[in-house]
Amino acid sequence: ELKVEQNPLFLSMQEGKNYTIYCNYSTTSDRLYWYRQDPGKSLESLFVLLSNGAVKQEGRLMASLDTKARLSTLHITAAVHDLSATYFCAVVLGGSEKLVFGKGTKLTVNP
Amino acid sequence: DGGITQSPKYLFRKEGQNVTLSCEQNLNHDAMYWYRQDPGQGLRLIYYSQIVNDFQKGDIAEGYSVSREKKESFPLTVTSAQKNPTAFYLCASSIDSWGLRRTYEQYFGPGTRLTVT
Q: In angstroms, what separates the C-alpha of B107 from chain A's closest C-alpha?
């Protein structure tokens, strides 16, 4: 059974600071996704990571994937209030079409 | 405008009633999915379909049913057998290259918030 664990589950940080969210998964997978969810809203796709060593950046967010360690990171640089949201990682279950989601990291950026 | 629509946005039902949630997409995607989200939780897969007239159970299919008669539509029925149906329901779709058996990025609809009392 594929398990996906995110930490921390809650993160409160000040504007201008840097921080990293971690996503660990328990079995081999060749695809990992990061999504953002604002309160009461749907999920917005942020990054698709398809291979070992993949790194993608968009604005103040950068995601990376280490398939050997079964670990992905979402790094936040110089946080701003607009980044406040819940961030989910999701991993494709090998040999299937199913996505397994982590529980999410609720990020609050304080002025 | 291409996208995924779900209706209604909010739905209230009495316990013991079946209810059907609508999901339509005009992205020409092959695969469609239904997820359930409970407060403070991630998404859990209810059912998915890779092709018309075929669908598979996800992790929490009990008390739910689906149909896939058209490529663009994947309605979900929450039956009275579902013991705790109050939740936020999200529909998603993706391109599925049938020959390669690989699913690409899933795009999500706006969701339906179901409250059963």
A: 7
